[in-house]
Design brief:
Helices cover 64% and strands 4% of the residues. The protein is mainly alpha-helical. It has a two-stranded antiparallel sheet with strand order 1-2.
Length: 237
């Protein structure tokens, strides 16, 4: 009995941990790049988008897991989208009511969470096959991982591009960079910053592998056959 509890707790912890680091949606799976590139012109925008996506991830994962045996297989994707859209609508309305400035700044990207492949991917790949607690941990881990990725990209872009760091509202650090480079906050700057961070993370992965005496990890094959979000790639491969 004790062994079963330990195994269950370990699975829950790993579901949470992997979402943040090993299967980070942005830096490892390279998903959700549209909001990553679009809203990371300031740290405040990044945190707002990340927290909104985390709320939707956790709530949709929990509800999909709770209803997984009741949803017919033939219509499971439309059902998941309806569930996700419900929570996205709630987030959108709450932000418009209590955080109108942030809502206006994020604009269409809050409603577009409905079609974010991270949300639907976790519902399809994990929540539909696992219990409520594990699905909650998976959603929370993936949401935190996504938020951290957005915050990291936004911090670099805002410091380099504007010379400030707007944490939230009036909480801001100014004059960090006396010679800001405007390119960093332009669309091209988003691509450049993300590319440099991905290259750095891959280099760190190679360095850690060599320290352990293991061969460097192979580059990720970013196509459907090798996707780690579901089991289809393994079956087809």
């Amino acid at each position: 009995m004790a062994k079963a509890i330990i195994v269950s707790n370990m699975k829950t912890f790993l579901s949470f941990w992997y979402g943040i680091f090993k299967n980070n949606p942005t830096f490892r799976l390279v998903l959700g790049l549209c909001p990553t590139l679009a809203v990371t012109t300031s740290l405040e925008n990044a945190l707002g988008m990340g927290l909104a996506a985390t709320f939707v991830l956790v709530c949709s994962n929990v509800l999909v897991s709770a209803l997984r045996k009741e949803i017919p297989g033939a219509v499971h994707i439309p059902c998941y989208i309806v569930i996700i859209a419900t929570f996205v609508t709630a987030v959108d309305l709450l932000m418009k009511a209590y955080l109108p400035d942030l809502s206006a700044s994020l604009g269409i990207f809050i409603p577009l969470i409905v079609v974010n492949c991270i949300i639907l991917g976790r519902a399809e790949a994990f929540a539909s096959k696992n219990g409520v607690i594990d699905s909650l941990a998976d959603g929370l881990g993936s949401g935190i991982g996504f938020t951290l990725a957005l915050a990291l990209v936004a911090s670099f872009r805002e410091i380099i591009g504007a010379g400030t760091l707007t944490v939230w509202g009036d909480i801001a650090i100014k004059g960090i960079n006396p010679g800001p480079v405007t390119l960093a906050v332009l669309p091209a700057g988003g691509f450049i910053t993300l590319g440099l961070l991905l290259a750095l993370i891959n280099r760190l992965g190679e360095w850690q592998a060599r320290r352990r005496g293991a061969p460097p990890p192979l580059p990720l094959n970013l196509d459907c056959r090798h996707c780690t979000m579901c089991g289809k790639g393994k079956k087809e491969g």
